[in-house]
Amino acid sequence: MEILNSAADIKIYNYKDRTVHSEKGLVLFRKEKDNFIIASLGEECEKYRMDLSDPDNYVLVAPFSLGVIADYPVAEKLLKYLLNKYVHTSGGKRRLFKRADRVLLFLHEPCGPVDLKAYEDIMMLLGYKDVHMITAKTDLGGLSVEEAIWNMEEAQGKKFDCAIEITKNNPYEYAKYSYEQLLEDFKRWGVEPAEVIK
To answer: What pLDDT, on a 0 to 100 scale, did the predictor assign at position 90?
Structure first.
């Protein structure tokens, strides 16, 4: 399914208990009368989608496509849900205070200034005053992704509430989606792929 190939995977790193959680970057909407309401978010969408008895009344959305924000309001709702699920609760109860007002974003795909600003704005809406970013252009100094994320507190000398990694667990899916989009572009432009790809 095309949308699954383009959808990012999201990892949440909780600095307080040093845990890592991975979820699909998906939101499923169900039609009720004239409106669509959220039926499930994240990993739940995979199972829910397989059990649909009336697919015409459901819409699956990937708010992060190829690593950038494709649907701003839905992206905000998904991140809020994941933060509440993995960071802002303890023992099943909502925490009164965040560990810190700082958050780290690790963005694997190239992002332009507008994309970076959109990410920063979402995190500010979610209550973070200080947004640090590691992008595809950041030199990790030989560290792995996880090492760079866990070492951020030591490197910055500041506490972080959590880190959010926008990634793709199976990069082949991104490649397949991008290739299919490229073929569509060639067709739209009236250009034969063989004339360009040699």
So the answer is: 72
